[in-house]
Design a protein that fits this description.
Helix content is 79%, strand content 0%. It is mainly α. It folds into two domains: 1-191, Growth Hormone, Chain: A (Up-down Bundle); 213-410, Up-down Bundle (Growth Hormone, Chain: A), CATH 1.20.1250. Helix 3 (43-70) runs antiparallel to helix 14 and helix 4 (73-91) runs antiparallel to helix 8 (162-183). The radius of gyration is 21 Å and the shape is globular.
Length: 417
């Protein structure tokens, strides 16, 4: 029997997501210490473009969603991904901070068209019965990109310089993102005479329609206390995840004095651990209550951040242990919060509700980059920032416990218990 074409589409999307997130979210921060050295920028200045990238991405995502619904997702993704590759190329040529900001805003628009939302949209058209495992593999691909790409770029930096490494990043982006979109990714099964999950047009044996609970409307969702509690949790988690990934190179290399190769190893450990975390916590959430799975992953994340706050120079083993705990924790948090969203709001209006929560995520992460940078520049260290992150993670665990209690109480009331 021929392999269902959807698995090839998934492979293409995995390569695209590994390239886009692996480069823009998980690798470009490796260049920050070199940019501060060459241009004399402080922490807030060098991380400001990334802040704008997340904020602009949050604001443009709803408009991109409208375009993706109306026009060919594949063609729009190619446009966005080509923009990213061109941005990476010109990033190797920058001579001013303004140029860097413009390129990062280009990245934001490119990710709105070719990032997570568009990947999941295409994936949802090809898989329904097996959407769980397909989505899990897609999410893991960003961590695989984060584990491999920094090592390639760091090697290029050591052999040549950061500008040559950025040119290599643009080539890697073209290979990982553009080529798979052209040869592997298709909009929907019907374009090839197929049905979702492997059926064939005219054959009702496969992919029969699945009745879905209509779920809550957006108005009903925002009228509940748990929506705002969940918004606080997801904003707090992203307030930690995004700046932690963006600022770690500056902390580890500039503040603690580790070498560029040790920093690349740190990122490889972190993202290799996150591959395990995304799979294991996704699997665990099928066997224990999803709230407790999120609490456990948040606790591990908090322990990893605490370890980073106590890290000293010349403690390479401890650094890799911190990377492992942080990678496991943040990957579990990333997966579990998405699962909890779906658990609460899956239905006919899920997309609208999810858009609001994703905007909250991105805005919190974007503004956090600047806030943490200013705290670092004003205090001279990341100590206060790391303490704030730990406090937010512990607070999130308490709120998730409250969400669990509210959900249990609502279930009992609904069942008449």
């Amino acid at each position: 029997m021929a392999v269902y074409r959807g698995w090839w589409v998934l492979l293409g999307l995995m390569l695209v997501y590994a390239g886009s997130n692996g480069l823009l979210t998980n690798s470009l921060q490796l260049f920050y210490p070199l940019l501060t050295e060459e241009f004399g920028w402080d922490t807030e200045t060098v991380t400001r473009p990334a802040k704008y990238m997340f904020i602009v991405g949050a604001l443009t995502s709803p408009f991109a969603g409208i375009l993706l619904d109306r026009y060919s997702s594949r063609h729009l993704m190619i446009v966005g991904l080509v923009g990213i590759v061109i941005g990476l190329f010109f990033l190797s040529k920058i001579q001013s901070h303004t140029q860097m900001v413009i390129i990062y805003i280009t990245f934001a628009c490119g990710l709105s068209l070719g990032g997570m939302a568009s990947n999941m949209l295409v994936l949802s058209r090809w898989f329904k019965a097996k959407i769980g495992i397909a989505a899990g593999l897609l999410l893991m691909s960003s961590s695989l990109g984060g584990a491999l790409l920094p090592r390639i770029l760091n090697y290029t930096i050591e052999q040549y310089d950061w500008r040559q490494a950025m040119l290599v990043a643009s080539v890697l982006g073209a290979v990982l993102m553009i080529i798979p979109m052209i040869f592997l990714v298709k909009n929907r099964p019907s374009d090839l005479g197929l049905k979702i999950d492997g059926g064939v047009e005219g054959d009702d044996t496969f992919a029969k329609p699945v009745d879905l609970d209509p779920g809550l409307t957006l108005l009903e969702a925002v009228s509940e206390l748990r929506f705002y509690l969940l918004a606080f949790v997801t904003a707090s988690l992203w307030f930690v995840i995004v700046p932690l990934l963006q600022h770690q190179p500056l902390y580890i290399q500039n503040d603690l004095g580790y070498s560029g190769s040790e920093l690349a190893n740190f990122f490889s450990f972190l993202f290799a651990s996150s591959v395990i975390g995304k799979f294991s916590f996704g699997w665990l959430s099928d066997f224990i209550d999803k709230h407790f799975s999120l609490i456990l992953s948040t606790l591990i994340f908090a322990l990893g951040v605490y370890g980073l706050s106590r890290l000293q120079a010349d403690q390479a083993v401890n650094m890799y242990l911190c990377a492992t705990a942080t990678g496991l924790g943040f990957a579990g948090v990333f997966s579990n919060i998405q699962i909890l969203f779906a658990n609460y709001y899956a239905g006919n209006h899920y997309g609208k509700i999810l858009t609001i929560l994703v905007m909250i995520d991105s805005l919190a992460g974007g503004f956090a980059i600047g806030i943490i940078a200013k705290m670092r520049d004003s205090t001279g260290s990341y100590a206060t920032s790391l303490q704030l992150m730990i406090t937010l993670l512990l607070s999130s665990m308490v709120i998730v416990l409250l969400l669990y209690w509210i959900s249990k109480r609502s279930t009992k009331q609904y069942s008449g218990a």
